[in-house]
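Late entry, written up from scratch paper. The run itself happened at the end of the previous shift, but nothing got recorded in the book at the time, so transcribing now.
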Amino acid sequence: MRNPVSRMSTPTSAVSGAAVASVARAMRVLKAFADHPGGIALTRLSGELGYGKASLSKIMSTMEREGFVRRDGAGHFHLSWHLLALAFGHAQRVGISGVCMPVLQSLADETDELVQLAVIEGDHVLFVAKAEGPGHSLRLLPLVGVVAPTHATASGKVWLASLPDARALDVLRRQGLARVTSRTITSRARLLAELRSVRRDGYAITDGELDEGGRAIAAPIVHRGRVVDGGRDRASSLVELAVAAPIVHRGRVVGAIAVSGPSSRLPLPRLKRLAPRVQRAARELEALWPHEVTARDFGLGVRPPNGDGRPARRHA
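Output as recorded:
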């Protein structure tokens, strides 16, 4: 006698596979709407995605029935507010820290190093969250809750690089260029030259400038509002935000994500190879970032540097 369980296993697996494929197609449809804020017709969407009109029509009808898209009088489809309500409701329940932590932890697990998130408050870079990889007993201590010297951190450099030179110099004049280690950059001319490289590359590196024997790489988190280009305001596009464009052309830097560790584990070639991955994490955070974020949103106050420019709590 045949085993009824074994008889049913093949069609069940086939149905499961088909269901997953359907979900994947629906997700691609949702992502396609990001490039069409004014809506899109079924025929055009079919051409862009390469789906047959009949199968795509079924997907759109299901999504419309469930409230994720709506159809206007001209027959164009638009994303509905239902999707945003779900996202905002989730963000409100878990808080900005809970929203950001999966991105930080994924990068920490992949690099097996310390990953830190910083926000910009006024003229200061404040570290507000961290994640650590699973290995290595020797690590740099995090700077969470500390305002570190802007000129001596990779996160500070990516913010300074987003400013016009005159504005960056004004910040540096007020904050000073304290020598934290023997490798700290204390020359304004040398720092400005490095900021030009940061603007070009879209990331910053520090090499023993905050901690003797430590290195870090940071990428900027850029606000998705309006950007300034040649003195003219214009809306930033998703295409711009999807590539590591020069920082100065991408908008207002509101934070940074950084990977740091001992120099022995982070030689400069490895740091540069990590740059695209760190930039991708920054873009993931950009997609989640509310309009305004402060340290208080992470449950933190501000601990300024000591008078000599050293952070109140140093890395090990």
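The first helix runs from residue 4 to 32.
(Scratch paper discarded after transcription.)
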